[in-house]
């Protein structure tokens, strides 16, 4: 691999660890390296459009420069440019000319127009950001197989005819990491591609809940309601997170009714079938069943291989069949895990300046695959953490709130999330019947603390080594 390619693989890996996935996927992942070459010629990064260019320059360029200094031990010139053949929605020109209807419409059109001239106000950028759509999550990038063909077909119908009552709401369910979020973003991206004036908003249920709380605190319920009720397409992800949040559910109930009555499209994702969602108002559950409910199942081996090849192709990496089969054979439960493995292989190859072959894949994944085969259990994690921090296992289940207990408990939850395939609710259950939001909070706390706390990082490292054996 060329030095610059290796550096960019290193950079991607680094950003992925430092940024929340949403930010990484939106701003860093779409950047492409121009050409290949030696560091003396500098690093040229291509952004697919003006917004990404501006945003990345403002927020991440300094960090890329720092990483270059670490990697090459000398400064490297870095230029960020808009890709010349950046993809534009086919109907865009028509919309730009003909669409003068409302301020919101023209704002979107303005934002898109600026891809050419790069003159962009922060408000417009923020407005665009409001859709929260990950540009790479498209139908083109989604591999189809038996596991998701029905869900994908339904999603395409929705994207072509948003608001059609046969598919409204579209309810997509399946366990974690199987592509529900990807499919929702694909719907949003497709609609905006062909009809950029549509007001599309992707929102994770946790963020919807935060919006409700903020509206309460700021006494801005009117604008909250107005905003959500003005959407043409609402994509609500992981609705199971609204478990027990009654006030938020009530708000959603009204939004739901308003949108459906005015033939606006709603797409919802969840980890279970509507009737199995716990802690959710029956009125909502019944409504979730009004349109079409589709499931995504874990992909079979051939589909896992195809997904790996597609991901490699997006990253401009050649992946031979034997390597793809090796990874697909060993990691079966979800696609996110597969992607993680592929990234590990790519990073390993770039660090060691080696080509990706079966030996390298085996070497770079021996910990991961060993760990999966050894089946790390939550009980095992609890025992190991208790021993390590010299507390009792029962303290991890208890409601004690002293710091000496709370932190190990959070660490144990973080390890459970990272080393097992258990969902947040099931981890909560294993820690004395706690709510999944407690687990989510613990995982986020540890994620954020570890970036600045070296001792904590060390503890996490050692514990993972012990658990992986
Ligand atoms: N069929 C597929 N083809 C290509 N990539 C896929 C496919 N299914 C899933 N992925 C990828 O797997 C990763 C995880 O998918 P995603 O986040 O959509 O899962 P999810 O079902 O929403 O998970 P969660 O319930 O944890 O939110 C994403 O990077 C997505 O692009």
Structure, explained:
The chain contains 23 helices and eight strands. It has helices at 3-18, 21-28, 50-72, 92-98, 103-117, 122-129, 149-160, 180-194, 205-217, 221-229, 246-261, 282-288, 301-314, 321-330, 335-351, 358-364, 366-374, 378-389, 393-397, 403-419, 424-430, 436-450, 454-468; strands at 32-33, 43-47, 78-82, 170-173, 200-204, 233-237, 265-270, 292-295. Helix 7 runs parallel beside helix 8 and helix 13 crosses helix 15. The protein is globular, with a radius of gyration of 23 Å. The site of adenosine-5'-triphosphate has 18 residues, from helix 8, helix 13 and helix 15.
Provide a short characterization of the protein structure.
The protein has 469 residues and is α/β, with parallel strands linked by helices. The protein has helices spanning 3-18, 21-28, 50-72, 92-98, 103-117, 122-129, 149-160, 180-194, 205-217, 221-229, 246-261, 282-288, 301-314, 321-330, 335-351, 358-364, 366-374, 378-389, 393-397, 403-419, 424-430, 436-450, 454-468; strands at residues 32-33, 43-47, 78-82, 170-173, 200-204, 233-237, 265-270, 292-295. Strands 5-6-7-4-8 form a five-stranded parallel sheet, sandwiched between helices. A three-stranded mixed sheet has the order 1-2-3, covered by helices on one side.
User: Roughly what is the average pLDDT, rounded to an integer?
Assistant: 84
Percentage of residues in DSSP E strands: 5-15%
Count of separate DSSP helical elements: 23
Distance between the termini: 32 Å
Largest sheet: 5 strands, parallel
Low-confidence stretches: 86-121, 123-127
User: Main sheet: which strands, in order across?
Assistant: 5-6-7-4-8
Subunit structure: Oligomerizes as a right-handed, spiral filament on DNA at oriC.
Domain AAA+ ATPase: 166-297
Binding site for ATP: 177, 179-181
Pfam family, one: Bac_DnaA_C
